[in-house]
């Protein structure tokens, strides 16, 4: 295949340059984007939507726009343009020589991958992709053929393989039931978008326990409800929420950044705290009573499966463990792969080991020990019967 006339690189996001010199930036981490450059935001996690705070015309799904606006403290002045999945985007600045569309990435509500198709190349930018079996993702991950794939590498190392979602979910239920039996509340610290709603849905589906949400989780979960995801929860500051908290024996879900019990729970200190994050498969969290690797991201095996389905001629990795994933794709799938940030640089092969050593030094500096995957003690199912829904 001839070299693509599209040019792409990492410049605080994916930057695509077209033959007519027009540019498109995807998931920019910078609000200072010239108005003449159109922008796409793939989903509503804050490390992807910085450009939505600018005056640049920004294209995203309606769900992503609603989730973004819900997180804004001030009125948004951005030019936000809703786009449906699989429809050709009509950009303000033209881009007439390319067909650009969004397809579901299966990560969180409204999350998208981006297809950019020109005369001689079909580029698929995965952005963050989701794992199998999520309860609150309406549009499941789409896999299409592409010549070039730019793939996320958040958990892109061969040693990062989560337990099955069903197994992790059952461990969460079991642990919660044991805490509730002690007349204590359960507090989960989770990502505000994705993990928090997964937990709400899990407890709605599997138990009779009441779910209380921190205000930041409440507002975003209401967006999920607006777009057809059924969730049953009570805001912690509502009168009903306060009464449930006084009674105890509730599941409380708050943003992961909250490291202490919120002020409205100070008189209900009889509780146990757990963190929910895919990073629990890698690190210990000593400040919590429990940790669970429930993630809205795909793990390594799911990423490899996705790449195989796309069947690209070349792969560029981005976000996270880029070097390890690129190396694994080259060796296991026999597809040329390098981190996107190295594109165009000379002596790529000599550069990769150096970057790996740098990453290792940074990891050591964090001084966070790797989790030893010790088997949990078996819990008799009969001790949980009172907490499960019955037909």
Structural features, described:
- The chain has 391 residues and is α/β, with parallel strands linked by helices.
- It folds into two domains: 7-159 and 297-366, Metallo-beta-lactamase, Chain A (4-Layer Sandwich), CATH 3.60.15; 165-294, 3-Layer(aba) Sandwich (Rossmann fold).
- Helices cover 26% and strands 21% of the residues.
- It contains eight helices and 18 strands.
- It has a six-stranded mixed β-sheet.
- A hairpin with a 4-residue loop joins strand 8 (112-117) and strand 9.
- It is globular and about 65 Å long.
- The model is unreliable at 346-391 (pLDDT under 50).
CATH architecture of the largest domain: 4-Layer Sandwich
SS-based class:
alpha/beta
Would you state the CATH class of the largest domain?
Alpha Beta
Query: Average pLDDT, to the nearest integer?
Result: 82
Distance between the termini: 58 Å
CATH superfamily caption of the largest domain: Ribonuclease Z/Hydroxyacylglutathione hydrolase-like
**Main sheet properties:** 6 strands, mixed
Question: What sort of overall outline do the alpha carbons produce when their principal axes are compared?
Answer: globular
Strand content: 15-25%
Order of helices and strands: EEEEEHEEEEEHEHEHEHEEEHEHEH
Helix content: 25-40%
The total count of helices amounts to 8
How many runs of DSSP E, i.e. beta strands? 18
Low-confidence stretches: 346-391
Task: Briefly say what this structure is.
This protein is an alpha/beta fold and 391 residues long.
């Amino acid at each position: 295949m001839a070299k693509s006339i599209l040019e792409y690189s990492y410049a605080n996001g994916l930057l695509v340059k077209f033959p007519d010199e027009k540019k498109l930036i995807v998931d920019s981490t910078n609000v200072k984007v010239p108005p003449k450059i159109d922008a796409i935001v793939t989903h509503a996690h804050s490390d992807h939507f910085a450009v939505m705070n600018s005056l640049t015309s920004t294209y995203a799904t309606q769900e992503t726009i609603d989730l973004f606006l819900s997180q804004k403290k001030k009125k948004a002045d951005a030019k936000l343009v809703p786009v449906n999945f699989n429809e050709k985007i009509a950009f303000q600045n033209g881009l007439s020589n390319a067909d650009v569309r969004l397809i579901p990435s299966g990560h969180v509500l409204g999350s998208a991958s981006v297809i950019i198709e020109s005369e001689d190349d079909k580029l698929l930018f995965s952005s963050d992709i989701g794992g199998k079996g999520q309860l609150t993702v309406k549009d499941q991950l789409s896999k299409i053929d592409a010549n070039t794939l730019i793939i996320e590498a958040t958990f892109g190392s061969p040693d990062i393989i989560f337990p099955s979602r069903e197994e992790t979910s059952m461990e969460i239920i079991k642990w919660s039931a044991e805490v509730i039996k002690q007349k204590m509340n359960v507090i989960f610290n989770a990502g505000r978008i994705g993990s928090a709603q997964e937990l709400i849905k899990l407890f709605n589906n599997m138990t009779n326990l009441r779910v209380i949400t921190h205000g930041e989780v409440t507002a975003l979960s209401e967006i999920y409800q607006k777009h057809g995801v059924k969730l049953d929860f009570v805001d912690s500051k509502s009168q009903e929420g306060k009464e449930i908290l006084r009674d105890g024996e509730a599941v409380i879900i708050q943003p992961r950044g909250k490291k202490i019990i919120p002020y409205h729970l100070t008189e209900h200190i009889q509780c146990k705290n757990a963190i929910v994050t895919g990073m629990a498969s890698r690190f210990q969290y000593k400040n919590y009573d429990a940790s669970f690797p429930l993630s809205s991201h795909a793990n390594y095996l799911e990423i490899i499966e996705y790449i195989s389905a796309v069947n690209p001629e070349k792969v560029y990795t981005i976000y996270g463990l880029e070097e390890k994933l690129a190396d694994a794709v080259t060796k296991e799938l026999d597809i040329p792969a390098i981190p996107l940030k190295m594109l165009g640089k000379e002596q790529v092969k000599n550069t990769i080991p150096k970057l790996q050593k740098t990453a290792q030094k940074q990891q050591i500096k964090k001084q966070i020990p790797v989790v030893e995957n010790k088997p949990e003690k078996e819990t008799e199912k009969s001790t949980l019967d009172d907490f499960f829904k019955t037909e």
